[in-house]
Here is the input.
Amino acid sequence: MAVQSTTVAETPLVQAISTRKHRTLWGDVWLRYRRHKLALFGTIVLLILMLGTFVGPLVYTVSPEYIDIMNSSLPPGADHPLGTDDLGRDTLARNLTGGRISLAVGIVAMLVAMVFGTFIGILSGYFEALDNPLMRFTDLMLALPQLPLLLVIIMLFRDTLRAWLGLELGIFVLVVAVIGLLGWMPTARVVRGTVLSLKRKEFIEAAVCVGTKESGILWRHILPNVLSPIIVSATLGVAAAILTESALSFLGLGFPSDVPTWGRLLFENKDFMTQNTWLIFWPGLFISLTILSINFMGDGLRDAMDPRGRQ
Amino acid sequence: MSNYLIRRTITAIITLFAISFVVFGVLELAPGDPTSALPETIRPEVRQMIREAMGLDKPFLVKYTLWLRQFFYIEPVMLVQNALGTQILDPDTTVRLSSWGSRGTPVFDLIAERVPQTIWVVGLAYIMAILIAIPLGVISAVKQYSFVDQIGTVFSVLGYSVPTFFTGLLFIIIFSVKLKWFPSIYNTNLVVNDWASFVLQMKQVIMPVTVLGFFQAAALARFTRSSMLDNIPMDYVRTVRAKGFRERYIIIRHILRNSLIPVITLIALGIPTIFGGAIITEQIFRINGLGALLISAIQVNDIPLIQTVVFIFAFLIVLFNLVADVIYGILDPRISYS
Here is the structure.
């Protein structure tokens, strides 16, 4: 009787386990991410913005540079969906190409910061001898005044790089490199902290015992485990980089006038904003929406990748 | 504690020297030439003499040491001199740190002209941010998920997603252009000597302060909220409650006091960043403060002025990091330094 009752009770559970779909780590993360409403909203908005800026100019073929003085400072209308600026250039076309550059700067600068931050973080977390010097270096970098230094470096080296790499690419490389190289410190600290706690875990000890090479341990065991804090800080890094680039362009020290980024559009249209408020409304709205969406996504990812939330 | 303080101060000084080296080095690498702005008619040998007189042909380390001497010795002494009205340094032999532009005006005189505006705006903005953020954070935490909490969340998210250069422009359009309540350009020459001029001063300062303060308040409110939420489930709170005190008293005298420890540290750490943020706000509202000075110096390639202003920003960061650490140690007796 007793034997029977246990089998009856166990059968549905056994069935449930065998029929449950195999779940992967990233599948799990996605499941939980999907439940975060704001993050999902952010993802959709950002996807629309990215699609619009990367594919949009191919569909909406109006030139962002075409000057049409007769039709200047128009409000949004049938011919120009978002209106025109003081020279009659189409606002929608300019915002689309501008967004392409703003988003590209954000993503590439974030990649630079992540590569650098992860590298420094793993090294100082794993190798005790490197920890102190690298962390002092990080502290030093954190004590540098970000925005003033960015402005100075860009102003000073703009012409040199422009001569080397051409007008547009030169400034792109410079802006991306400087934002990336001044923005890796928070990532390095987070990664170092995670590596320090991972290092004492049994699976690392086991890997050492089996005689895995140090590079193997770092690459195969440590790196995959620090991926979630890196992804979260990468998301927030994109937002920070886009904000910084916009700020630089807004101060007139970012991209030159023929490269319309969102920040640049705010800068060059702010003198005409009393006549045509739309000119500053659109780029400002796009920057804010992008940052908002990315921040929501960051929140969602942090919750979704927190191992304590796994079921 | 005093041991820790000494160690911490020494680290700060070393950091400061390293930063000064970086700042000076970056600008030395720069390809600019101060004589390039002079008229073409000046002959090359005269040009060379000008460069020599400016000390540009000297090796890097000599220039660096000279700059350090000027920054840390001559200028502070000059300040004391001006304050006391005495003569300490010989005016004929001392070389002050001079700007390349502005007909060689000493850099510190230029900075002294600009600091009051920046401090006035930044200071008011920070006070406003604190006055908004702390009550908002406390209410959001005590009444978690309530209407106020929701509003607070939206406010914070907007605060750090909408860049100040957009809110600033929107404010100008709404409040200066459409409603004509406040002027859009800051008038530095305004002398405050009676009630009417004081009102004018408040009117011109209110928009930049709101824009800057809003941005700072957003992060601060979130931080206060989460710090309060950390403390609410603590045992000591339960003890106080068990003693039968009023809820208000518990929140203000016990939870808030403990929650404010990290918040105060964050406030101290935030002071230098708000100076950095003021660079943008000053451009929007045309305030001729320290940030505007830096931008104009960058545009004319005035290296000594840039070096000094950037270094002052760095100095503020290091100083307030130190202050934050010390405050934390004083306020939280659980932290032990050994």
Q: What stands out?
A: DSSP finds eleven helices and no strands in chain B. Chain B touches chain A at residues 15, 18-19, 22-23, 26-27, 29-32, 157-158, 160-163, 165-166, 169-170, 172-173, 177, 272, 276-277, 279-280, 283-284, 294-295, 298-299, 301, 306, 309-310, 313-314, 316-318, 321 (CB under 8 Å).
